[in-house]
Amino acid sequence: MSPGAVLVTGGTGYIGSFTALALLEAGYEVVIVDNLYNSSQEVLNRIELICGKKPDFYNVDVTNEATLDKVFAARPDIDSVIHFAALKAVGESTEIPLEYYRTNVYGTICLLRSMTRHNVTKIVFSSSATVYGDATRFPDMIPIPEHCPIGPTNPYGRSKATVETVITDHIEAQRNKAKSEGKSGEEWNAAILRYFNPAGSHPSGIMGEDPQGVPYNLLPLLGHVAVGKREKLLVFGDDYASSDGTAIRDYIHVMDLASGHLIALDHLRSKHPGVRAWNLGTGKGSTVFHMIKAFSNAVGRKLPYEVVGRRAGDVLDLTANPTRANQELGWKAEKTLEDACEDLWRWVKNNPQGYRQNPPDFLLEA
Ligand code: NAD
Ligand code: WQD
């Protein structure tokens, strides 16, 4: 039996586009809804260039429930949702928290209501390691397992933690409702995927991260330094209790993240776990200095940096314990940090304008 169609919200964004590609490659039909707030429709052509298939695209805001209803009505073959659409800038979330709660929390409520009306019962949700907050307050919980108490420290993180609760309560209510009607209710399932630090691009060099504004994450910023759009990288603090004084993160290749979504969706279909959270990380922490070195190696020259003070809200160490995903889903990150750096460099150097330019011919011929 061929799998049903998957609705991918935020599917023209960074992680969503790689997941859409992986779904198409696995034989799923893909329907994307995105309002293009932080992405470009051009990515749909790149997906087609790579796999020969194009997702069905609807320019829809997830906070518009009536429009979501129209998409479900137009595509009755949708049987599951992967929900990426969100605002994601931590700093900005402290300035305009209401926008963050509106898009991330209210948008999810609209989606769940619309899904329920159309009897779509499975959802995979993009959560974040940011829900753990400063996990170093539990020293025996580094690397971080899913049972580490959560404690987000900013509105973005709190919006993600709230959505985890909203989804959990909704799935439980739907299961109870079904049981009260004499049915099993086991078709109602949700995967909460807590990603650590996504990194890298497609090895072809024609798909990558292309945010609409100025990047603020470490690797895209290093990319800007490498192509001369930025003079140097500012290293936020070298007085952390790590091997070289800089903070530790778990950088995971975006293609590994994408495969995690497919495996989680399969798990929901076959094992009916109810609601379950899984960390998606490699289990290996890297310092900022290590990342500068790894990306410099990919570029082939040393990249300039300057150490400045710590960034407000940063924590020493966010490294995943991915054992639960390894054991329960049979998922494991396969790609290395070197892969992520090399793929990112291929993307950045060949597409300095991201999706606002055509990919070079030699990439298309490769
Ligand atoms: P992204 O900004 O590239 O993708 C998000 C997409 O959602 C964009 O295409 C944007 O246009 C769309 N969107 C925003 N508001 C919308 C709305 N109201 N209606 C419809 N579409 C809307 O971000 P990403 O890095 O691909 O992140 C995807 C998901 O993963 C987000 O939920 C994010 O919070 C989560 N996440 C990201 C990271 C990270 O560091 N990139 C880490 C952990 C979790
Ligand atoms: C990584 C490391 C910085 C920029 C963020 C969100 C998190 C998740 C992933 C969505 C840190 C250091 C960075 C720079 C630097 N997103 N750094 N100079 O902060 O770990 O996580 O993205 O869910 O919620 O908070 O990622 O890439 O910004 O930083 O020294 O110019 O690089 O201090 O140690 P972060 P990042």
From TrEMBL:
Describe the subunit structure: Homodimer.
Which keywords, in A-to-Z order, does the entry hold? Carbohydrate metabolism, Galactose metabolism, Isomerase, NAD
Pfam families, A to Z: Epimerase (PF01370)
Annotated pathway: Carbohydrate metabolism; hexose metabolism; Carbohydrate metabolism; galactose metabolism
Query: What species is given as this protein's source?
Result: Trichoglossum hirsutum
Q: What is its EC number?
A: 5.1.3.2
Q: What does this protein do?
A: Mutarotase converts alpha-aldose to the beta-anomer. It is active on D-glucose, L-arabinose, D-xylose, D-galactose, maltose and lactose.
Q: Write down what this protein is called.
A: UDP-glucose 4-epimerase
Q: Which GO terms describe its molecular function?
A: UDP-glucose 4-epimerase activity
- Swiss-Prot/TrEMBL cofactor(s): NAD(+)
- Name one cellular component (GO) term: cytosol
- NCBIfam families for this protein: galE (TIGR01179), PRK10675.1 (NF007956)
Q: Where is the NAD-dependent epimerase/dehydratase domain?
A: 6-281
Example GO BP: galactose metabolic process
Similarity annotation: In the C-terminal section; belongs to the aldose epimerase family. In the N-terminal section; belongs to the NAD(P)-dependent epimerase/dehydratase family.
Q: Which reaction does it catalyse?
A: UDP-alpha-D-glucose = UDP-alpha-D-galactose
